[in-house]
Write a structure and sequence with these properties.
The protein is mainly alpha-helical. It is about 80% helix and about 0% strand. The protein has helices at about 5-15, 20-35, 40-80. The termini are far apart.
Amino acid sequence: MALTYQQQIAAIKADKNLSDDEKARLKSQLADQEYGAKSFDINQFSDLLGRLEGSKMRQQRQKSVEGRRDIFSQGLAGMMSNF
């Protein structure tokens, strides 16, 4: 059965064979394991980045299509105003 973080800290504090420096080092390592940065999954990051880039490209493409529509409608309005 695995000990909880608090139980491990209590065990380190209660150990009479460890110096104060060793106790501090062990508590620091334990805190890093418990609360430090978790493992980084590069594949998940790459997937998310690819999805973001795809979304940005679709947004840009939609913006370009809407821009062409605006230009076309302005040109058509200009031609109609000449009649």
